[in-house]
Amino acid sequence: MFSARIKLSYTLVSVLAVNLLATSGDITMTWTSPIYPKLHSNDSTINPIGRAISRDEDGWIGSLVNVGAMFGPLPFSLVSERFGRKIGLLSIAIPHIIAFMTMAFAESVYLFYLGRLLGGIAVGGGYTLLPMYIAEVSEAANRGAYSSTLGIFWAFGNFIPNAVGPFMSVMWFNLLLTCFPVAFFITFFFLGKETPYFLVGANKIDEAEEVLMKLRCLDTKGVEIELNQIKTNLKKEESGSYSDIFKNQGLRRAFIISLILMALQQLCGMNAVNYYLQTILQESGSKLPSDISSLIVGFGMFLFSFLVPPVMDRLGRKVLLASSCAGMGLSMFLLGSYFYIKDHTDWSVEPIYWLPLLSLVFLIFSYQMGVSIVPWAISSELFPKNVKQVTATAVSTTACVSTFLVTRFFNNMTESLGAAGTFWCFTCCCSICLIFTCCFVPETKGKSYEEIQNMVQKWSTEKNSNEV
């Protein structure tokens, strides 16, 4: 089990089923790492386009997924509010499937553009609904551990392209990836449950009770207290909007914290590393083959993701996030230092050829221990149901815009600043994230939904000098 406090229940089954969508999403994000070397080849047996793509086309293929992700949160969040979280999540699989099928048979760069755009729309929807769904089906004591399972499935999604992509053709690689959203759709259709919060909000009390009994493996008496708490909380809430957030000092502070955290998560540079992993390893001049090195890094990401669930509800969100930022900053600094020695000095890097791989493995470890999942977990916990749709949309959009900026202009940064300067810029962002976490991020470990809302409302009574 992920934690001693997580008992085998249908809640875990539902969480694992929905997490297959997380794998589909991060497959889309890391897709570029093994594909870029193929698309930069002039060998028509390797490159379906028949020519090497330009540097500008490279940038658009990498970043269009984030353009699509900017637009994905709104339609899927509207579907989830109108028809339920389950329908909203199932609908996200459709653009994923179309995207992979399009790129499997693409012979034009514009079809790759289309596939990346569609995949991005699905990614944006997934980032919006997945943390919300898991938070709404989980009991308070295990919410952090269940939320952190997202990191495992996201890491598995990052691992798959690096594990099989370098050794498969573009067509068969994309056809293989199509299986993941298909598997999610089938599994979640049959095993996934609607959230009790949505059902109570839709005045389907009997269905909510049945779902709670199924999720908790308890009888009517066993879920009575939790069901009454959900009813009480929802009665206090009415449909909300952005104006409601900015009128309430506590919600405004929670909103600003969530947006800044999400922007810093992306500006720390992890997605740039994921997108250009093989390219970075090739340019490092390491003696280790780039495809094998990227496989090691991807496997490390997947392996390290298992470390978070047991400690999320023990050490707390804040400790994990601060430690994660510090580790990422050190890793980025070492990468920048290696490239500075290689590109700007007469010193040989042969004695330290292992440093890029070691730095990347430690970067992955640090990222998985906090930055990968904690901002999503916190943003899903801080807000009442009446504003969750608008806040989840804003948080996901912020993440996507930040990722777009980093991935679209990563090549421009390396051209103007050099690889060393680029990684040192990421080091600065990690340092800012560390300071922000220590000063402003609240601890939600072990707190119930009601306790977190009381904490947020308490912020409204604080003096303006304590505002974020």
Report the radius of gyration as a whole number of Å.
Answer: 22 Å
Number of domains: 1
What string, H for helix and E for strand, traces the elements in order?
A: HHHHHHHHHHHHHHHHHHHHHHH
The CATH architecture is Up-down Bundle
Shape: globular
Residue share in helices? over 70%
Spans of at least 5 consecutive residues with low confidence: 1-6, 463-468
Q: CATH top level?
A: Mainly Alpha
List keywords for this structure.
disordered N terminus, transmembrane transporter activity, 468 residues, Sugar/inositol_transpt, 23 helices, 78% helix, transport, mainly alpha, Growth Hormone, Chain: A
Structure report:
This protein is mainly alpha-helical and 468 residues long. It has one domain: MFS general substrate transporter like domains (Growth Hormone, Chain: A). It has helices at residues 10-30, 32-39, 55-71, 73-83, 85-104, 109-137, 143-164, 170-191, 196-201, 205-216, 220-235, 242-247, 249-267, 270-275, 277-283, 290-304, 309-315, 317-344, 355-371, 374-381, 385-408, 410-440, 449-459. Helix 15 packs across helix 16 (290-304). The protein starts with 9 loop residues before the first helix and ends in a 9-residue tail after the last helix. One of its GO terms (molecular function) is transmembrane transporter activity. The chain crosses the membrane at residues 60-80, 87-106, 112-133, 145-164, 170-191, 254-277, 292-312, 319-341, 353-378, 390-410, 416-441. One of its GO terms (cellular component) is plasma membrane.
